[in-house]
Amino acid sequence: MTIKIPSLTIGDITVPIPIIQGGMGVRVSLSGLSSAVANAGGIGTIAAVGLGDVITAKSDFEKVCSDALALELRKAKSLTDGPIAVNILGVLSNAKDLIRTSIREGIRLIVSGASLPLRLPELSPDEGVYLLPIVSSGRAADIVLRTWDKRYGRTADALIVEGPLAGGHLGFSMEQLKTPEKYSLDLLLPEVLEAIKPFEDKFGRKIPVIMAGGVYTGADIARLLRAGASGVQMATRFVATHECDVDPEFKRAFLEAKEEDIVLIKSPVGLPGRAIRNQFLENLESGRIDKIRCPYRCLSTCEVATAKYCIALALINSSVGDMEKGLVFCGQNAYRVDKIVSVKELMAELVAEIEAA
Question: pTM of this prediction?
């Protein structure tokens, strides 16, 4: 017997498939991928970090980044009428400017993580714009929602709960990541549902919980939906699609990765990260990376004096296929990727698996 898949509703936005495509920077999830996901019945996400020409940005960083984001959003809107979200890292020095740009271009879904987004309502006061903070525990959810309630008299429009198997920057310590089973999505979900209940009661509405990090199959999605999640966020699987905006060599890294190639690293952002071991990481470990000179100051938390590499440049390099100088972020399940498919095919496969689970 198959089940009817529940739609995902955030504010007055409803999509038939409860999947948000995760925002992947730098230049991994742009207009091509996000619009394809929106057209297929989910929510597509553009990552706002690292856009624009790197040379021009040296002299006018904020304007170059803002103009590049606006251009990407206009491309996406020309390709779909479906909902597009923008993912904006809380540690970006120009986060406020990118949020303003997104809203000006008609975006109504703002996702923010890589730190507790305690000031997000201040940066985006328009109540017609829906705010989705990323948290990694019930405690973090309580801190964010309690702060928003006290300072701004509002609550989150949805919560994204990212577990320890996610790709990119992680909201866990290196010590915690050694025992990821203690922080599995199945354990995180009930504690977050409990943490948000007082705020749902106070504001008189449901706060959808979106689970992320290690979600790979439709069976994973069905299990989380049965346990009380309103949807999931997936990123790694969308890299291996024809519409993903990165260079083919980036996708090849996923296809060729073995389980032992998925490693944890320390990022200049000050957070652990998960990536695919490659020549760049080997050079980094052996000290064969030139000392950086940062002209951008794009990250408010980056310790330029002690940083061993520029993460923005490393991610830009990989996005254009320079794998010897590029960092490849990925989720823990990246080694399971074995083929490139279209977004439409991937979504259909996931839907069939959800129905059958």
Answer: 0.95
